[in-house]
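(Fold this chain)
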Amino acid sequence: MIRAESADRPYLTSFTNGQHRASSDNTPDKGGQGAGFRPHELLEAALASCMNMWLRMYADNHQLPLEHVSTTVELKRDHPGEAAFEYQIALEGPLTPEQKSKLLGISQTCPVRKTLSGTLSFSSAAATVP
């Protein structure tokens, strides 16, 4: 679970999972200070991080000589009501073409991608502070 808290500057928000802390903000042209990740960048980071971890775990479990993974994700919102994640994955190590192909296929099964590809719903429980 993530808890987000307003900071002393407009739009700056700190968030924590109880163990780690980071910040989110808006860009200066939208009233923020640019002092943290933008919310959509956090979505991109979640997908990129998951793909990297998923590939490393798969390679470790199958003794594949994967030495390094680099994943770039960009969220495209060119059309109203529609969003598309575009990504590139670079694999380093003495991998065969078959191993690279297998890893690229496995990247499509990472848990965050599965979550984002499924039906999403939202529920809210209002909380008030006296």
Q: What stands out?
A: The chain is about 30% helix and 25% strand. The two ends are 24 Å apart (CA to CA). The longest strand covers residues 68-79.
